[in-house]
Amino acid sequence: MNNNLNNNGAGFEIEETNSLKDYVNLIKLNIIPILLITLTGLTVAIIFALMAKDIYTASNALKIQKPSGGGILDAPLLPEFSDFGNDRFIANEIEILKSYRLRTIVASSLIDSFKVINQPDSFYNLFDRSIDFDKAPLKLKSINDLVKMLEDTKIEQKRGLDIVTISYESHSPFEAKLIANSYADAYENLSLKYTRQQLTTVVEFLKEQGKEKYASLLVVEEKIKTFQIEGGIIALDEQAKALIDMLSTFEAQRDAALIEMIATNKQANAYKSEIDRQNPSISKYIASYATEPKLKGLQEQIAQLEMQRDLALSDTTISDASEVLLLNQTNRRINELKVELNRELETFKQSIFAASPEELRGLSVSLLEAKVKYESLKSSFEKTKEIVTVYESRFNELPEQTISLARLTRELNANEKLYQLVEEKYQESLIVEQSTAGNVLIIDPAIRPLLPSKPNRKLIVLIGLILGMGIGFGFAFIRNFLDNTVQTPEDIQKRNINVLGWIPKIEGITLNKEFEFIIAKKSDSIYSEAFRALRTKIQFAKIDKKNINTIHVTSSTPSEGKTTVSVNIAGSFAQTNRKTVILDCDLRKPRMHKVFGGERYPGFTDYFLGDIDLDSIIHKSELKNLDYITAGTIPPNPSEILGSNQMLSFIEKLKEMYDLVVIDSPPIIAVTDSEILSRIADASILVASAGETDMELMTKAVDLMRHENNSFIGVVLNKFSYRSGYGSYYKYYYYYSHNRENAKVKHKTTT
Fold first, then answer.
1. Please, what are the domains in the chain?
2. Range name among 346-360, 367-381, 711-725 with the lowest pLDDT average
């Protein structure tokens, strides 16, 4: 963190900006937990990667195309609209692929395949894994469980193409391939069934009609046989035979037209039902086109000319060239009318194609064609019916004695020809049905994968490493965000509090109390240099007074190192040949005597009671120019003693005897003793411990010390670990300490 410091009397105003160095320092402060968390994440990832089972993926590719609508969609009349709405069509097909019905078909197919293959080791997902295999044999999942399992099948459309891929993952490569291909086969068969649905309806109808006509034919044959046995006429003359043959031919044509009308109507109704399910208004719109007067007129003209032609052909006496020429002209005219009819029909198809929604265009065109065909068959049926009426009148003119046999013969011939026509239509429809391809083409069937697709062990380890580092860094930042303790000098300066200095964390101080008085024990260490730097800061802290004769040292809470700081501040001043005394005013938990290795009794409280003289309470330390006075007997009323006139007189007497008096006092937040002493002293110092002192408590302690006496000069940050990223503040300490140590080694080597 970079800080712009502006002197403002008691403290500093801080303009705080974040920098890369701040984040680096934060990472250094938390390097151990970051490394531990990162190592944990990496270890977990490695274990998972090693223990994870191989997963194989098998995929196939299907080409899905729109079904043709009966001719018009085979060669689009409007090419610019030929692919319009195709994405929606593919989306609908994908929903069919995901449907419960299809998954049920696939599940049944898988069970059958498992029974046929009979190789349990080649399967994994098909088995019920909830069963303990050590205690029970392998058991296949139920149909419902398999259907649920197939929800994991991945079905995707390749972007911008009519290609759909079906993928499945399994621990068994054979099973993955089998399921993907079974899915594709089931969809292909279901799609083919949908495509042939209308044709199947017609085929079934013609099949039933064929059975009925064949049964009728057998009945008529039996009637003729019975008639002849009973002695009836057994033969007809040539004229009667010719008439019966013509009549039966036209009757067969009429009945065949009727049957085809019914079949076409069934097909049209199937189209209409599907369209009505989505948009009922479309079918009415198409029906109006199919009965348009111009189309109807052309159909009637064609039917009329065909009737005339058939009547002419039925006359076996035609031999004149002019009559043959007339017959050829009739055929030519019929063809011309059919061309005109087809032209009009194509125009109507274009209109229907443009007016229908994209998802209904194929069905709309198919419905139009079926309706037009129905109207044509209807016209042919009516005209053929008229011919039959003419021939029936001639048939009724036959002699009475031959008419019974003639009727039976007529019925026999009509049923034979009708049966033949129906059988031909049935065979034609059956061929068309079987030759009609579905709209699904399996381009690439799934093959058995040789290598697993998952897990990507390198990626898992890398993710574990990155995730561990991320969690570690997150821990560091969250810990820093939630940590409300003082960590760095900048934390104090941000509160507009002056920082006198910082004392490095003294290694071993908690293990050996001897090193608390480090200014005397290791005067050439970096810790001693820190106290000397602090001494300089104290000397120039208050420019409004020439000399500071009394220094009061306290802290916000216990165990922040105020006694250690007090002793070493006193020692550092003593090293400048200033006669110094340190007074232990912590009358609740005194520690000064322990630092110097002396006894608490007698102390200054005993002097106040008159039990002992002044010289008896002053003790010499191991450092020249430094004396110390212990607390003595702990009184029941410390605050009253410290705030008494007797205390003021005692301090004044010490100031006469010494150049500097350092007062060690109890924590200021806990009791009022320190606040009283801060009003007596020339300068008051608050000791804060890095990583231990609460920021709010420190601020409150400073507020208590800022009073009208204006003795507060700043905060000393104790136990500051500069090694964790703030070493730049102490470069000179390292340099100085390193040179000192090298000098010692050289001196010892020389001697």
1. 2-52+455-482 (no CATH), 56-196 (no CATH), 199-435 (no CATH), 489-750 (3.40.50.300)
2. 346-360
